[in-house]
Amino acid sequence: MNPKKQKEKDRRRARKLGEEAWDAANAGNLDLAEKIVRRAVAAQQDNPVLWLDQGEILGLRHKEAESADAFRAAISLAPTFAEPYARLAALRFRQGFTTEAVALQKQAIKHAPDNAAFAEQLTAYQFVADCEKPPSPQPVPTPAPQAISPIADPVGVWPERLATFDWEQLGDRLTRDGCVVLEGLMDAANCVQLCRAFDQDELFAKSIVMDRPEFGQGTYRYFRAPIPPVVDQLRRATYSHVARIANGWQRLLGEPARFPSEWDGFREECRSAGQTTPTPILLKYGPGGFNALHRDLRGSVFFPIQMAVVLSHRADEEEAESGGFRGGEFLFCDVPERKKSLHRAVPAGLGDAVLFCTRDRLVRVGDIYGLQPVKHGAARITAGTRFVLGVPFHEYR
Predict the structure, then answer these.
(1) For the whole model, what pTM was predicted?
(2) What is the mean pLDDT of residues 163-190?
(3) Which residues contact 40 (CB under 8 A, 6 or more apart)?
């Protein structure tokens, strides 16, 4: 067979293998999909589309380094091919490299200026990049003595409170459903003090007023270091429980890595990765406020479970004049949303804490376990004001 005919034969075979790879991926057999797409690339190594397919399938397999290499190979073969720039941008954004994601997405738009989805994605990346910029240095006023530690909690309270919960049952529900409520974890006094702290500017490093339909509507304030004692102690005490749950997931997934049993150990892992910025946040939603469904994708080191504590009284549905907020249910769903996908709306009131999966929940397929991408958010507030304390266990860059 002459070289020209052989090349055409290889091209047809590679194209067929590429189609078969996606058939396997869509059927949920990612292991087979990876094997087939690698054969497709080997059959036609100068095809940037096949390298793009390989990058996407490797991404679904959580092989991020190889996925990035495949996207870069596609770019090298076809420098004006917009799609691999966009895919690589999405990957780098998930890994916490927001500035690089913005630059890559701009390249995608440069080569496909009429693609509205690319432009929308750039807006999202740029928004997060702007939020990550360190605040301008400002003189910090000397607070009154009571403002320095207005919400201190007695030592030992949180371990005692957390010990009253059935953590084996909570772990089973968190594994099965992806989120679970710890009813009445925080007492009313601490809830009130944290709500009052929202207006103490000296406690916060950065504030964001959100009013965009694709992100949400509300005000978010990030604590500066050192974070208030009540938040620090709650995070430390809760971490030891959720670390056991997370390590159980690691065993089921067959992953050798384990999370440290204490939060200080995990914090050192974050610091080694350059992640030293505190993550606890106070959120305030007024009428009409909401948090759009999203995945938390910042940082190469992250903990798979987060916590949100509702600090406001929930309205009594039977008494219109009871006060409190209405709406604002915690939302949790699989990605992408399908007819049989998990989708929950969880009401939570004063002092209730919600534990939920950061990026993925554990799923069982036959005799093996895998990860199902998930999103979370908050339903629209129809009346009143809802304050929430958000507590990721990892830190940011």
Answers:
(1) 0.64
(2) 93
(3) 14, 15, 17, 18, 21, 50, 53, 54
